[in-house]
Q: What sequence folds into this?
């Protein structure tokens, strides 16, 4: 089995940063995954002019979706399967099977874990430490695991190939999945009083009244009138009301 | 009594299910109904990795579902059945008393037409859904709990 040069892995790693650039409902991140995987496929027999490369590229750009930070696992595993001359149908089956688990693991690890935890620590430090410390903490706590996850994913994907469940089952990742959710909850719980205390020292009474009224109204709207409002829109609505109250 | 929720989603176990619906329903049990995955241990290993340890995942074939459905329905409020296609749904409905179906993600393929950004159907699939609707199965499309559920009549209008 051929092995792409190190420079191909570097190129793929960099291209994976743009994996969502061509996101659409039809193929989701499929085109992005194909673009990112392309350097790893150049070393297939016949090079870029060969049929294996063309067939692998056709497969690589089909419909695909996963958490963007874990897409390297798919890029590495699928490229390895192509180099190992696994039949095309089996490569497609592997690709279809990776869709869900890589999304579920990534969402739990990042969107429901690292992101709220890092944001909460950043907010708490912004409320209690000198200017800039909170922002630095947020960027560091979020991006160190994020970049590590991307680098690990591509390496582990290439090493594992179709045995990707083994890579996802590493003790470190299992432990991270177990603790990150509760850790995020604890961080948010600690940050809220710190931020509220900071705001209470600067907001006037009228703004607090307006904020309380706005929050109550948003809660009613969100709970009974428009369940599809969602957390982000609810937050934006509350922020606008706070701003109006402050201006008033 | 709540009817067990059957979701058709070609990604099966993924973030919208585990994080989105998982929290909204307080999921304790995911049943993945798919004949090919039921017979494929390596695929089962991958799907297990996507599920939190507090949630039990079970793999079943359509034939298994005929006998196990009453057991799943007993904890319907916290159970979800995941199917990868309308064809599997039609087969399941032929052997089990399915009453509530959520179309969560059926993505583009040659021959399919877009009905919602996350629901693409061939004419044959649309006809199968119409037939199930006429048979009394409540079908709607909703990818995540915070979005509006689109009833089948509106979806296929």
A:
């Amino acid at each position: 089995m051929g092995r792409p040069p190190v420079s191909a892995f570097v190129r793929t790693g960099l291209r994976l940063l743009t994996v969502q650039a061509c996101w659409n409902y039809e193929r989701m991140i499929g085109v992005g995954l194909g673009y990112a995987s392309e350097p790893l496929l150049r070393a297939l027999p016949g090079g870029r002019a060969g049929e294996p490369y063309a067939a692998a590229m056709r497969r690589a750009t089909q419909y695909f979706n996963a958490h963007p930070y874990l897409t390297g696992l798919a890029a590495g595993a699928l490229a390895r399967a192509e180099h190992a001359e696994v039949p095309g149908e089996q490569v497609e089956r592997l690709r279809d099977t990776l869709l869900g688990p890589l999304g579920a693991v990534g969402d739990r690890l990042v969107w429901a874990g690292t992101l709220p935890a890092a944001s909460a620590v950043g907010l708490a430090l912004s409320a209690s430490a000198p200017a800039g410390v909170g922002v630095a903490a947020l960027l560091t706590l979020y991006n160190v695991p994020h970049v590590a996850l991307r680098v690990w994913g591509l390496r582990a994907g290439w090493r594992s190939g179709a045995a990707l469940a083994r890579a996802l089952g590493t003790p470190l990742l299992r432990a991270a999945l177990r603790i990150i959710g509760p850790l995020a909850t604890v961080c948010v719980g600690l940050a809220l009083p710190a931020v509220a205390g900071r705001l209470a020292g600067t907001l006037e009474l009228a703004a607090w009244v307006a904020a309380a009224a706005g929050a109550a109204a948003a809660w009613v709207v969100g709970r009974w009138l428009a369940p599809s409002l969602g957390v982000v829109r609810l937050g934006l609505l509350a922020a606008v009301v706070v701003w109006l109250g402050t201006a008033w | 009594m709540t009817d067990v929720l059957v979701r058709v989603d070609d990604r099966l176990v993924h973030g919208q299910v585990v994080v989105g619906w998982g929290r909204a329903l307080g999921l304790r049990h995911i049943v993945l109904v798919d004949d090919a995955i039921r017979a494929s241990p390596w695929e089962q290993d991958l799907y297990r990795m996507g599920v939190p340890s507090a949630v039990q995942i079970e793999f079943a074939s359509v034939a298994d579902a005929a006998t196990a459905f009453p057991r799943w329905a007993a904890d319907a409020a916290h159970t979800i059945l995941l199917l990868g296609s309308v064809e599997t749904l039609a087969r399941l409905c032929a052997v089990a008393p399915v009453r509530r179906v959520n179309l969560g993600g059926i993505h583009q393929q040659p021959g399919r037409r877009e009905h919602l950004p996350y629901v693409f159907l061939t004419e044959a699939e649309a006809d199968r859904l119409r037939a199930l609707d006429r048979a009394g199965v409540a079908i709607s499309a909703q990818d995540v709990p915070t979005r509006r559920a689109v009833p089948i009549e509106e979806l296929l209008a």
Observations:
- Chain A has a mean pLDDT of 87.
